[in-house]
Amino acid sequence: MELVVLGSGTAIPHPYRNPTGFLVRSPGLNILVDTGPGTIHRLPRVGVKFQEIQEIFYTHVHPDHFLDIIALLFAKRLPGIVNAPSLTIRGGPGLADLVNQFRALLHPWLEPVGYDLQVKEYRSTLKLNGWIVRACPLRHHTSSLAYRFEDERGRSMVISGDTGEDEALEEFACDTSLLVLECSFPEGEGIEGHLTPSEAGKLASRAQAKRLLLTHFYPACDGKELLVPCQAVFDGEVLLAHDWMRVAI
After folding, report:
1. Burial category of 101 from C-beta neighbours within 10 Å (exposed 0-12, middle 13-18, buried 19 and up)
2. How confident is the prediction for the chain on average, in pLDDT?
3. Which pLDDT value is given to residue 102?
4. In this structure, which long-range contacts are made by residues 126-133, counting pairs with CB atoms below 8 Å and at least 24 apart in sequence?
5. From start to end of 27-101, where are the E strands?
6. Full-model pTM
7. CB–CB of 31/56 below 8 Å?
8. Where are the domains of the chain?
9. Which architecture characterizes domain 2-248 according to CATH?
10. How confident is the model over 169-184, as a mean pLDDT?
């Protein structure tokens, strides 16, 4: 299993960080987790055709995590595009209604042509190509879900999406091989609903995660010390995400 960081930033334009988007890869399966603006235009650089994506998981429906679904659905119906047989979009409460509103507003330009489109509000356990995928509701937004991907060998990865400190996430991420946490602001500049480095480190420590990847950096993080306050409270390996980063699980 491999995680590719397609975007390590936020809604704020940044010269080096695209809004949030991840590609989760294993033989025979490519999954997108979040599609902030510009995500699908990054897929060719990592050797993936956008029309072959069959599964997208959304951590929540804030625009910097979700908006490129419009670009994807529009691109999939352009002349000459050969699509995979289906696309399933998964997320928390309100996802189906929002997708349907976009489709109605932009009708017919997002309607599927030559493939089956399904939207599922997902809170259960799912099996995909030998993986087990679980979801956990978080407090950040009514649509917020964290996801845990686990393979047949027991290797796992948890992706939080946006979150503040959350006991449910600590339990959900227990003993995971890689915990992907947002780290929106540096020490001393945190706001409710988001994490600072030390808060992320404490959460990872309580979850007994093996490794921690920090991402979703607002420009306020530029030039600030992020590793040291996190490492002071978490004994495992800490990585700072950057666009195009690849992390083996």
Report:
1. exposed
2. 96
3. 97
4. 126/90, 128/29, 128/31, 128/55, 129/26, 129/28, 129/29, 130/26, 131/1, 131/26, 131/29, 133/57
5. 29-35, 55-57, 86-91
6. 0.96
7. yes
8. 2-248
9. 4-Layer Sandwich (3.60)
10. 98
